[in-house]
Design goal:
Layout (H helix, E strand, L loop, with lengths): L6 E3 L10 E5 L10 H13 L3 E7 L7 H20 L3 E6 L2 H9 L2 E6 L5 H13 L4 E4 L7 H4 L7 H9 L2 H4 L25 H8 L15 H14 L4 H4 L12 H5 L5 H9 L6 H21 L11 H9 L11 H5 L6 H13 L4 H14 L3 H15 L6 H9 L22 H7 L2 H9 L3
Parallel strand pairs: 2-3, 2-5, 3-4, 5-6
Antiparallel strand pairs: 1-6
Helix pairs in contact: 3-4, 12-13, 13-19, 16-21, 17-18, 18-19
C-alpha cells in the first residue's frame, strides 16, 4: 500500500508519450521496500511501459572516499537486484539534476524519492522546473510523511511523540513488491560502470584522506544481516543496555538508514514481529527520535548552524562564553584524539577507524567539545565538521539533530553551571559509574 500522503507532484506537467517511466533514485538507495520504486512500477504497468532507474553520482557536500565506497557497494547490489526484476539501472557520473532532466525527455512520467536537506530539496525543485513530463515525489525514508506527522518544527520528543503516534497504525503496513510487466534491460541508455569504486572516486575528485572502512560493507544484504543479528542477539537487552558503550548493544543500522539501503518501515515491521521485550525502546529510537530529526531539518532552515538552537540555549551559552575553561583543544588536536580524556579519545578513535560511534558516546563526545572550545559557536562547527567527515551516518537529519542536541536542541534547561550554563552536562565520572568503560576503550583502541 502506498498512502496518498507519501505522494506529491513537484510540477504541473502532463504525462506525455514516452519510452519508459523514469525513477530518479537518489535518497532511497535500495530495490526492496521502496515506495518510490513501487509507485514507478505501478505507473509503468498502467501505461504499458518499462521502468528505467537513474542514479546521479556527484560530489555531495562534505562527502569523501569513505562515504562513496560504502554507497557504491550498495548501488552495485541495487543494479543486480533490479536486473532480476527486469529493470535497467542507469547510474551516471553526472550532476543528478542534469541526468534526471535529460532522461525525462523520453519519459512519460518521472518519479523520485525524498530527502530533507537543503541540497536534496533544491535538486528536486530544479529538476521539476526543467522536466517536460510530470515529476512525482514519493516519500519512502520515514514511517510517517513529515508533514503528516507535524506541520511545524517540534520542540522535543515529548511534543512530537503523541503527534506521530496517532498515525503509526495507518503507516506501519507492509509494502507489496509489484511485478514489472515490461522489461527494460535491453534499452540503449547511457550508464557508467560502477564496479571499480576507486576509479569513480578518482573521477569525482573528492577527499581521499578519509579512507573506506572494513567494519561496515554497504548494501541491503549487509543491512538485513545486521538487522537479523540485532533481533536475534541484542534486541532483548536493548532497553537495558542500549546506552552502555562497553556492552555495545546497538543495531549498527544507522549507516544503512543514512544511505537508504534499508527501509525504516521494513526494519520496524521486523522488530514488531518479534516478541522481544526490547522492541518498544528500539521503535522509540527508530521512529520517534529519527523522525523528529527529519522534522527538525525540514522545518528549520538553519539546521546546520549555531542559529538552529532554541533561544534559551543560545542565551545561556552566551552568558557563560567568558567562563574559564580548564582545557582547551584545537580542532587538529581533537581530530587526532589527543586530549587528556581517554574515554573521549576512544570515542574519536572509534569514529575515525570504524566510521561509526556508539550513540551514548556521541553525546559525551559533543558535550566535551563544547567544554573544551573557546566559544560555543566554534564548538558547534567543530563537532559538525568531525561528525560529517568521519561518520558514515553523518550529513543527514540524525547527524545534524544529534550535534544540535549536545547544545540544547530537543532538550530542556538544567541547573546552571560554568561554561555550560543551563545545557545538560556530562562527565567521565558518570561514565565510570554506569558503564564498563575499560571494555569500551579496549575495543575502540584495537581499531586500526
Amino acid at each position: 500500500m502506498i498512502q496518498e500522503q507519501r505522494i506529491r507532484a513537484l510540477n504541473q506537467a502532463k504525462e506525455q508519450k514516452g519510452s519508459y517511466v523514469l525513477y530518479w533514485m537518489q535518497q532511497s538507495q535500495r530495490a526492496v521496500c521502496n515506495h518510490a520504486l513501487e509507485f514507478a512500477i505501478e505507473a509503468a504497468n498502467r501505461l504499458s511501459l518499462p521502468v528505467v532507474v537513474f542514479f546521479g553520482i556527484t560530489p555531495f557536500p562534505e562527502s569523501n572516499a569513505r562515504h562513496y565506497a560504502f554507497m557504491l557497494e550498495g548501488l552495485q547490489e541495487v543494479r543486480d537486484y533490479l536486473a532480476r526484476r527486469g529493470i535497467l539501472f542507469a547510474p551516471r557520473i553526472v550532476f543528478p539534476v542534469d541526468g534526471a532532466a535529460s532522461l525525462a525527455e523520453q519519459a512519460s512520467l518521472a518519479v523520485t524519492d525524498r530527502g530533507y536537506l537543503r541540497v536534496q530539496k533544491e535538486w528536486r525543485r530544479a529538476a521539476a522546473e526543467r522536466m517536460v513530463c510530470p515529476l512525482v515525489q514519493v516519500e519512502s525514508d520515514v514511517i510517517v510523511p513529515v508533514e503528516t506527522a507535524s506541520g511545524k518544527e517540534e520542540y522535543s520528543a515529548g511534543t512530537f511523540r503523541p503527534r506521530i503516534t496517532r498515525y503509526l497504525y495507518a503507516y506501519l503496513r507492509p509494502l507489496a513488491e509489484r511485478e514489472c510487466l515490461r522489461d527494460s534491460l535491453d534499452m540503449d541508455i547511457e550508464r557508467d560502470d560502477i564496479d571499480d569504486a576507486a576509479r569513480i572516486i578518482r573521477m569525482l575528485d573528492v577527499d581521499t584522506s578519509v579512507r573506506p572502512v572494513q567494519f561496515y560493507r554497504g548494501g541491503s544484504t549487509e543491512a538485513l544481516r545486521h538487522l537479523d543479528t540485532f533481533i536475534d542477539k541484542r534486541l532483548d537487552q536493548f532497553a537495558e543496555l542500549r546506552n552502555d558503550p562497553g556492552a555495545d548493544c546497538s543495531s549498527n543500522l544507522s549507516p544503512y538508514l543514512h544511505f537508504g539501503q534499508i527501509s525504516p518501515l521494513q526494519t520496524a515491521l521486523a522488530v514488531i514481529d518479534s516478541s522481544s521485550p526490547g522492541k518498544d525502546r528500539f521503535l522509540e529510537e527508530l521512529i520517534v527520535r529519527r523522525e523528529l530529526a527529519a522534522n527538525f531539518v525540514h522545518y528549520n532552515p538553519v539546521y546546520d548552524t549555531f542559529r538552529c538552537l532554541p533561544e534559551w540555549s543560545r542565551k545561556t551559552l552566551s552568558k557563560h562564553v567568558r567562563d574559564r575553561r580548564e582545557y582547551h583543544y584545537t580542532t587538529g588536536e581533537l581530530e587526532a584524539g589527543n586530549t587528556h580524556d581517554r574515554y573521549w579519545n576512544a570515542a574519536q578513535r572509534e569514529m575515525v577507524f570504524s566510521g561509526k560511534m556508539h550513540g551514548y558516546m556521541r553525546m559525551y563526545w559533543g558535550k566535551k567539545i563544547l567544554e573544551w572550545s573557546a566559544t560555543p559557536e566554534a564548538a558547534f562547527e567543530t563537532a559538525l565538521t568531525l561528525n560529517n567527515r568521519y561518520n558514515l551516518d553523518g550529513r543527514d537529519p540524525n547527524g545534524f539533530a544529534g550535534v544540535a542536541w549536545c547544545f540544547g536542541k530537543h532538550d530542556r534547561a538544567w541547573p546552571e553551571r560554568a561554561v555550560f550554563g543551563k545545557i545538560r552536562y556530562m562527565n567521565d565520572r558518570g561514565l565510570e559509574r554506569k558503564f564498563d568503560m575499560d571494555a569500551y576503550c579496549a575495543r575502540a583502541n584495537a581499531l586500526q
